[in-house]
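User: Modeling request: complex.
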Amino acid sequence: MAWTGKILRVDLSSGTCIAEPLNMEWATQYLGQRGLASKYLSEEIDPTVDALSAGNKFIMVTGPLTGTMASTGGRYSVVTKSPLTGTIACSNSGGFIGAEMKNAGWDMIIFEGKADSPVYLYLENEKAELLPADDLWGLSVWATDEALHRKHQDPQLRIACVGRSAEAGCLYAGVINDLHRAAGRSGVGTVMASKNLKAVAVRGTRGVGNIKDPVGFMQATEAAKQVLADNAVTSQGLPTYGTQVLMNVINEVGAMPTRNMREVRFEGASNISGEAMHEPRKSDGKPNLVTNAACFGCTIACGRISTIDKGHFTVKNKPEYWGASGGLEYEAAWALGSDTGVDDLDALTYVNFLCNEDGFDPISFGATVAAAMELFEMGVLTEKDTGGLEMRFGSAEALTRSAELTMTGEGFGKELGLGSKRLCEKYGHPELSMTVKGQEFPAYDPRGIQGMGLAYATSNRGACHLRGYTVSSEVMGIPEKTDPLVTDGKAGLVKAFQDATAAVDSAGLCIFTTFAWTLADIAPQIDAACEGGWTMEKLAEVGERIWNLERDFNLAAGLTGKDDTLPKRLLKDAANTGPAQGRVNELDKMLPEYYELRGWNVEGVPTESTRQRLGL
Amino acid sequence: MLRSLKLEPEKCTGCLQCEMACSYEQEGVFNPAKSRIKVFTFHHEGVFAPYTCTQCDEAWCMHACPVDAIVVNAATGSKDVLNDVCVGCKVCTIACPFGTVNYNQDTGKVIKCDLCGGDPACAKACPTEAITYVDADQTGLERMRAYAAQSAQISPGS
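Assistant: Request completed. Predicted assembly structure:
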């Protein structure tokens, strides 16, 4: 079995670290990572608990293939209750710390309670201890990383931590690992900081063994890697342009949310695209992109390593930002750029650096700035509220200054850190918040991609592209092409994507593999590694079980079917240009069929027979 | 024909497939900490660089070993550690100017690259050909070709 069979329970209130055996029955029902930790969380906390109280738990979890030679087998997730949405939250990250946890011999770490003063967990194989972090509190992610490496004199230590935004109460703070990989969404970092847990530092030298059928596993992973190497998206598009390969594509189909989703096309898209990142700058002749980079075990390598033009106004006198660091992914480029109307690539890269440096989600941040800009241009929000900042669409100065304030929760940054929903409510225009269940939208306008509207409305962590990415089918034709402007068949499509995604997120693998892989490529890899007879069908069933478990958590937390909706703007205001011109998202045509396919009643509650069928 | 590992940092993405392949081949587990090849990240420069033993002809490690536990593999030219003979004194780790011989505290022996007996697992696992196993006399051939193309004013890809 590829699980280590061991979990670490850290009681922050009493300061104890205790090893426990993994519940193997749950492992066979929920696989690992997202599914398994969601099961633990559901069993162990009251879903109505205040997300930022000691009663919430914070789980870091790997999948069975994390730390193995399976391509992209380095993922880990953070699972907790979200302070942004009040739903169950699962944020997934790559980098290297997931594999390091596994190498140290742990499937999962459950943090409970709350420390009296700041601490960090130091984990070296079997040795786990909570150490004081008073000197780390108030430091950025990057400074914390440096301080811990220096303190332990171990350059191979892998570190995940929160930055100053989380400490300041930003509700969409993430957990950053390996300097610029993020469990980024839903405020999982805010929960970590609320527990006075600053960092987790891991060193693992035991290795991942225990593969059920080692020869079969090497064959299965080898074959699957060949599929990635033979696919144009995973072997060319993603390594060359990263997820930014999408910027021009999505703009062309008229699904590029622009200026707080008032429009569906951005005239400046090409200036902030993956292609633009390759173009030499006028000042020094170097492109924004230095190289592509891989997370642990990944043979795709979509990561961006970028630099900012040293002469750019954002970094002119700040040499600390002149080196290479994690560059723009599509979601960040969209939220920081198109949604705010800013097409200055260096300004966007600078803000992206700040998001990594102090651990806050560029999607939610960019979308909140966009909402503030709309409120400002309406005259509802004034310079008195913003501390003198002119929050106008297209202003790179407003965007970058907002980021500098949000990273430490200073002045107007404190309000921006609460997200678009709370901001728009405060200023009397809740309808201008482009969110579902309180979480900001990602980069696909559901008026131009109908299925995504249903995927957003029903996502268990609020608006999110990573819970059911029907863009694959509706725009890219993967695994088969469907018409993005049609609602027929989308209920089934969304359900299939959601279930498959839940399974992939529970395996230790990256969802980007599914541009090339289907469950038919994934199942043999899991099956060779793990006991339990892992077929495609079983994976789909596990995915469906996870989806319903998360749904049950949210219903118990107080959400209802009424929360499965979209902002009025997307349901009533038609797209003003492009292929989707004249269209709104027709959620009402898809949602009832979706409930039925899910085996839920008309109020969106799983029926008794559905629960029984899935063993819930 | 003797072959050598050729390492090209500009092609490396830092994925560590090589480290896993190495440790799996040598130790039977996926364990970068026990890999004989290492990938280094130079964050501020945005560079990933794989590095391992170059199999020196006059190997410092071999000459330094007081118990003759490091021997030449005649077929591959690699310098191999004889586990039964190694006493874990670590003198070879001091002697090696490149740091590519290292002590393994789990076994009390030293570990170094042995070219997997002539079929290096790291090169097979590398997805970007940053690690290849080529004619030992011709490791510079591709680079020469690129410069030859430049001087002949031909684009390197053609």
